Amino acid sequence: MKAKILELLRRNGDYVSGQELCKILNVSRTAVWKSIRSLESEGYHIEAVRNKGYRLIEENAESGDSDSADIYSAHEIKSRLDEMSGVRDVLFFDTIDSTNSECARRAEAGEEGGLLVVSEDQSLGRGRRGRTWESPHGVNVYFSLMIRPKIDPKCAPMLTLLMALAVCRGMEKIHDGQARKAPNRKRTAGRTPDSPLIKWPNDIVIDGRKCCGMLTEMSCEEDYIRHVVIGVGINVRHQDFAPEIRNTAIALDDAWDMKVKRSILIAEVMNEFGPLLTQFEKERDLGFVRGLYLDRLVNAGKKVKVLSPSGDYEALARGINENGELLVETPDGIIHEINSGEVSVRGVYGYV
Fold first, then answer.
1. Which residue, of 97, 100, 111, 193, is most buried by count of CB atoms within 10 Å of its CB?
2. CATH number for position 37
3. Cα separation, 302 vs 319, whole angstroms
């Protein structure tokens, strides 16, 4: 109910009477009052005026000047999701083994798709190829989305690329929205060093350094998908990265010199991903986003090193095909299609 109250107060922008809230939510005035008091205890500024009702005060919520602007909770995230996000429910944990694992457990127990699991930290976070994903408490974003898409199992790897595109677009909404609220920040049109770009297939980079990684896992039969879990980890707050990644990792707050609101970030990513998934279920390939993806592909036109079981080689990255495979051109002019499940791609002159 708290998520719905926040949504209604934000949408109205002015006072909403207690009677109207009771009618919309089909609850008593006492229930509304208790929810308002609970929200205030969490840090929300809600003004109550007799004969007018309640009004949510968020003058500094976008600019980041208020401590209450970064309220991080399930109902804060839910209150900012739109109808096309496809998120049915949000579960929030202070700590967990892995958001991907929690999604998988609930999927196996019969939970419907559209479940978003968020946690302040993970004790057993993991990345691609069995790598450990460090997940310190209270500084980053860790979330997983469990879906039951109506697609062929062979199409599932493409979901990682869709999520990468959604993360980039969600990040840009946050960056541009907060930059507009900060009068001393200079905004530049087009791609800039602080624009989020995609390092195929599952990393987001800013100024050549990784700020986000993704892991997609699937449970399926031969001809149908039982469920898919897409996990996302985003570096947000300033932190001391481990020595081995210190020169290749970056946090959004440092990259953009602003305090990013984590609840809003997750909601914006989901608001971008939902419509992409809906279209993908109709199209069954990535032809409808190839141009958008290429525009954000940090490797495009660059020399990369392909790490293949049959032998490593260098080539030029040329984009992706409609199946999400990376197209690389070897010196002999031959175009090769690279499957993310078979090989890794590295930059020749650095991380990207």
1. 100
2. 1.10.10.10
3. 10
Amino acid letter, 48 = A
User: Do 57 and 46 form a contact (C-beta atoms < 8 A)?
Assistant: yes
Which helix H or strand E contains 212, and what residues bound it? strand 209-220
**Domain range for 51:** 2-56
DSSP labels, 146-160: EE--SS-GGGTTHHH
**Distance from C-alpha of 108 to C-alpha of 58, rounded to nearest angstrom:** 40
Q: How many domains does the chain have?
A: 3
pTM equals 0.90
Q: Evaluate whether residue 64 is within a structural domain.
A: no
Instruction: State the pLDDT at residue 343.
Output: 67
The pLDDT tens digits of the residues spanning 29-38 come to: 999 999 999 9
Whole-angstrom distance, CA of residue 104 vs CA of residue 194: 34
Q: What is the pLDDT of residues 144-199, one digit of tens each?
A: 999 999 999 999 999 999 999 999 999 999 988 765 555 454 444 456 778 999 99
